[in-house]
Amino acid sequence: MRNSACVTTSIVIILAGLLFNGCGGLPVGAAPIDIAGLVIYNNTPDPLYDIKLKVEKTGTVVTCNFIPSGRNFSTEFPLKRYQGNSVNVSWQQDGLNRSTDDIYADIPEDLGPNRPVFVAVIIQQSGDVVVRLTE
Questions:
Q1: Can you tell me the distance from the alpha carbon of 84 to that of 107, in angstroms, rounded to the nearest whole number?
Q2: Integer CA distances (angstroms), 132 to 45, 81, 93, in order
């Protein structure tokens, strides 16, 4: 399965710094949020290649080489505390290089207390990327 090429043993170590280190954009007094994993969704009609998520603050990078149309890549890891850092996302599609500026995760108001969440990165047909925390 080609999508399995996205996972390496170092991804857990690299991902630990993705959204979880440094000063964050969480409201003062907000309950801590623990992250249990990452899912990258390809909501486009074409495959994505050379997907890269980079945390500008820490320089941490996570890469995946291929996600088919309508599919996703996911991984779980030991719980990490969310700190609100922004990410940049880049990928190749139809021979074109695409990228985003700094994106911050949408944090739903109805997250259950003391329940770990996943970071969902959704690449849409329009080229927009949404990052959201989901249960």
A1: 10
A2: 21, 15, 22
Q: Name residue 60's amino acid.
A: T
CA atoms within 13 Å, Cβ hemisphere of 102: 10
**Closest among 72, 71, 69, 50 to 61, alpha carbons compared:** 50
As given in the structure block, the two tokens for residue 52 are 């890269």
Q: Beginning with the edge strand found earlier in the chain, give each strand of the sheet holding 61-67 in spatial order.
A: 61-67, 48-54, 88-93, 96-99
As beta bridge partners, residue 97 has 92
Q: Tell me the two tokens of residue 127.
A: 């080229």
> What's the pLDDT tens digit per position in 115-124?
899 999 999 9
Residue-wise pLDDT for 56-106, tens only, equals 887 878 889 999 999 999 988 888 888 899 999 999 999 999 999 999 999
Contact 5, 105 (CB under 8 A): no
**CA triple 40-43-46, angle to 5 deg:** 105
Q: Please give the Cα distance from 24 to 68 (Å, whole number).
A: 32
Full-model pTM: 0.78
